[in-house]
Amino acid sequence: MLPFKVEFRYTLKVNICMLSRYYTLKQYLQNRFGEKLHRVTLEGGFTCPNRDGTKAVGGCTFCTDDGSSSGARNPAHTISAQLADGIEKQGKRFGINQFIAYLQSFTNTYADVDYLRTIYNQAVSDERVKVLAIGSRPDCVPDKVIDLFEEYTARGLELWVDIGVQSSHNKTLDLINRAHTYEDFTDAVKRIKARKNPLLRVCTHVILGLPEETPEMMLKTAESLAEQDIDDLKIHQLCIFKGTAMEIDYLNGDLSVIERDEYIKILADFIARIPEKVVIQRVMGEGKVGELIAPEWADHGMKQKFLHEFHKYLDENDIRQGGLMAPLP
Ligand code: SF4
After folding, report:
1. Domain-located, residue 11
2. Residue of the nearest CA to atom 3 in ligand 1?
3. What separation in Å is there between the alpha carbon of 228 and the centre of ligand 1?
4. Which atom of ligand 1 is the closest one to the Cα of 48?
5. Residue 68 CA to ligand 1 centre (angstroms)
6. What does the alpha-carbon distance between residue 88 and residue 125 come to, in Å, rounded to a whole number?
7. Ligand 1, atom 5: nearest CA belongs to which residue?
8. Centroid of ligand 1 to alpha carbon of 75 (angstroms)
9. Which helix (H) or strand (E) segment is 208 a member of?
10. Which of 20, 75, 226, 236 gives 285 a disulfide partner, CB atoms 3.0 to 4.6 angstroms apart?
11. pTM attached to this predicted model
């Protein structure tokens, strides 16, 4: 009996060690594609209805002039040229052969379908692209655009629709000038998931620490999202960037940002309320070089330190995604 017991306990220990406390993008990509794919971020040259006056002017109060871009590619180049450049650089650097083409900044579904098709075709013009990720907003995903998405999934590509919602509270969405409602978001998710297409994934973006939001309100957003059929989630803390409307409020003392330890606690409680099947693609936002005003703990190069502290907190408090720990005291 002894050898059996020893072997069983060893196997159990190995399995527990292999489990992360939340479902990371790295794990998903490894399971799905056998390796960690890297993103090639592409600038599609779009604008946003929240900037051009169709829905509002000025944009979301946290959004930078470049539409919250990572600034990775030169928008003066064609999408195909940006893709080729990104694949060459990342392929050499990471030794990988599969990529995510990511149309990130502004609203990459905000155009005529024929024009969108031209842009998307270029974004997947290299057969090493396995995923097309498209950044959008809840009120810019009409059914004809979902039809277009399915042209790509029919070719075997995964299509990730990145939909920023940021909060489930309409009062907050008004405060930050999102010019859409939470109901716009649930409607978009319902229509996308009604296709029952496993290659068509919804990735939702949320910001913790938005103006006038209490920890209880943020956790309510987690509970609301848990009721939606989302596949992926990107979470980050409120960042104040140079040139944004929030910069003025912050410098005037009318707006504050969340401290790191408080963010870690709320973030842990947040993911404990998110179903285990949801891939947590991001847990913090790192500032671009020279552009972040606050918080300083999230400046460029600080991500690994943050992740170390976050994972330590999860371990010390035995918190797991979907664990539904008790509400904040
Ligand atoms: S919807 Fe996106 S691109 Fe448009 S203003 Fe807001 S954050 Fe910027």
Report:
1. no
2. 106
3. 22
4. 4
5. 7
6. 14
7. 59
8. 17
9. strand 200-208
10. 236
11. 0.91
Examine the pLDDT at 29 and tell me if it is beyond 80: yes
For residue 65, the CA-to-ligand 1 centroid distance in Å is 9
Domain count, the chain: 1
pLDDT at 9: 36
Asked if residue 180 has its Cβ within 6 Å of ligand 1, the reply is no
Q: Is the CB of 295 under 6 A from ligand 1?
A: no
The domain that holds 124 is classified in CATH as: 3.30.750.200
- 64-117, pLDDT tens digit by residue? 987 666 655 566 689 999 999 999 998 788 888 999 999 999 999 999 999 999
Residue 323, in any domain of the structure:
no
Asked if residue 56 is part of any domain, the answer here is yes
Assigned domain for 5 exists: no
Return d(Cα 288, Cα 242) in angstroms, integer: 10
Long-range contacts of range 113-119, CB-CB < 8 Å, 24 or more positions apart? Answer: 113/144, 113/145, 113/147, 113/148, 116/145, 116/148, 117/148, 117/151, 119/44, 119/45, 119/79
Q: Which domain covers residue 140, as residue numbers? A: 20-316
